[in-house]
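Supplementary notes for students who missed Thursday's class. We covered one full example, reproduced here. Read the sequence, then the structure, then the short commentary at the end.
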Amino acid sequence: MFFICLLLLSSICCQGQQTINDTITSGGLQRNFILYVPANYNPANPVPLLLNFHGYTSNAFQQMWYGDFRAIADTAGFIIAHPNGTLDFNGTTHFNVGWGGSTTDDVGFAENMIDSIAANYAIDLSRVYSTGMSNGGYMSYHLACNLSQKIAAVASVTGSMSPSTYNNCNPTHPTPVLQIHGTADPTVLYGGNTFGQPIDSVMSYWVNFNNTQTTADTTALANTNTTDGSTVSRIVYDMGACNSTAELLRVQSGGHTWPGSAISLNNTNYDINASLEVWQFLSKHSLNSLTCLTSVAELEKDKLPSLNAFPNPTSSSIQIESNSSNFEDFFLYSVQGQLILSGTMQQFVEIDLSNYPAGLYIFRTAKSSLKIQKL
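Structure (token representation):
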């Protein structure tokens, strides 16, 4: 029935836009994707780019119809890329998110695809987003963790974070995330399993990383369709670093489906339209606003030569000295703007960084700031 619906939909002609089958070489493989360019695209005006990843066993064509953003793109004016996965050891299409023994470099593929599209179309590279169904949702989180320099925000529909993604996540900026998930999903369990983190754990990760409020604003959405057997709650953690947020649309009794899809499968919710929810969420964010602590640059503008640190860089402890003999409050931030540590010092303080991830940190007092590199 799924394929019959696709054939029927395929017979409807969409006027004006371009649907392009494109191929690039990435990681030594020929990789392909379907590009959708709306009719109102004007190369004089850079537009956002949305990556729309299919689920396990599916493909780009099916996702283009099932998790369909094209009508929204025609109005909002953005380009959509529908990537195709490769075959895993079971001969099944997939994206490599760290399980199943796959060796495909899908992060590299996503990066190469973005670069290729940007070379041929006017793309606003501060507004590149990722979404997807199931394995495509996993992949979107994987890009948020491993390609965040190119990805402004992500949304997952029925996906999760694999243990590998979850345990090795290293974004370079606060990352707004939206999760849409049914509590009765039999494939990607809401409570988690070997292949995916519990949805509540995923939300907790991004709440902590984005340094949002820890108490959510929860709203029961109107049950506009009383025959679909499910209802939706909107759970929002906001006021994060650089105005980031983490949001969950929890579909009570919802299944492993794309809410609002024109292709109706079992337990599909019709109180919301997942495509519209995803775009409304993603489109609010830009890399330009999410790098508010390139305010690292801002911090350095009024830097006074009153702090010294050694050894810097360091793999363990670092000693910081101030020229001031007064007591000073100090604050240690990640480069994403998260407060890591605070305290009071008088001329000298020693900080043990051995348990912190490698990367750039900012040590700040009321009058001075200093970059610290953890190896």
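Commentary. The longest strand covers residues 123-133. The first helix runs from residue 2 to 10. If anything here is unclear, bring it to office hours.
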